[in-house]
Amino acid sequence: AQTVTQSQPEMSVQEAETVTLSCTYDTSESDYYLFWYKQPPSRQMILVIRQEAYKQQNATENRFSVNFQKAAKSFSLKISDSQLGDAAMYFCALSNPNTGNQFYFGTGTSLTVIP
Amino acid sequence: KAGVTQTPRYLIKTRGQQVTLSCSPISGHRSVSWYQQTPGQGLQFLFEYFSETQRNKGNFPGRFSGRQFSNSRSEMNVSTLELGDSALYLCASSLGAGWRDTEAFFGQGTRLTVV
């Protein structure tokens, strides 16, 4: 079974500050992908960042970076220099070879950016 | 390049009716997945279609069905609607050739309300 857990239903951050969103997961597969998706009020899910499990180097996309701890099955997202446009629901997700294009999503973290 | 298009955006149906939702993937994408998003259950996988064949199916009753056409457009159908079917239905499109090809692009969803 695959599970993804986000233990922070809500987070807030001051504009220009840094915030870290937590995610833990469980899978018996040795090869898998982890994702962070952003869902703004427009409802469209947007890929923020992707990490391949066999890559030890943490993925980075501009102001977004992850801390991937494979042994601990932890995959946190760090947002640096937070901007008002970062306010959204953030979902952590997992996919693996046995389930192809099926994603397992966490319950989401609602991020508020305070001006 | 056009994104993923879901129609209609909003829908109100009466309990017991049936409904059909449509998803047009990004040009060249052959995989279409459907998800149900509710406040209580979060994002749950319904099914995935690839080259007109259902490749994977989530744990939903038989009232939920889908199909994919030769142009990769997909429809999902829900028969005998129940109040609990009220949700945001999201469609995701990807190239879909293999599981590593899992960068999924989501549509804006169809908000279904059952009264």
What does this structure look like?
The complex is a heterodimer of chains A (115) and B (115). Chain A is built from no helices and twelve strands. Chain A has 115 residues and is an all-beta fold. In chain A, strands 2, 5, 6, 10, 11 and 12 form a six-stranded mixed sheet that branches. The N and C termini of chain A lie far apart (41 Å). Chain B is an all-beta fold and 115 residues long. Chain B is built from no helices and eleven strands. In chain B, a hairpin with a 5-residue loop joins strand 7 (64-68) and strand 8. The model of chain B has no long low-confidence stretch (mean pLDDT 93). Chains A and B meet through strand 6 and strand 11 of A and strand 4, strand 5, strand 9 and strand 10 of B.
Proportion of strand residues of chain B: over 45%
Q: What is the residue-averaged pLDDT of chain B?
A: 93
Which structural class best describes the helix and strand composition of chain B?
mainly beta
Average of per-residue pLDDT values of chain A: 94
Oligomer: heterodimer
Shape of chain A: globular
- How big is the Rg of chain B? 13 Å
- Tell me the Rg of chain A in angstroms: 14 Å
Low-confidence stretches of chain A: none
**Beta-strand residue fraction of chain A:** over 45%
The sequence of SSEs of chain B as H and E is: EEEEEEEEEEE
| Largest interface by Cβ-Cβ < 8 Å | A-B, 23 and 28 residues
Order of helices and strands of chain A: EEEEEEEEEEEE
Structural class designation of chain A: mainly beta
Unreliably modeled segments of chain B: none
The outline of chain B comes out as globular
Compute the number of helices of chain A: 0
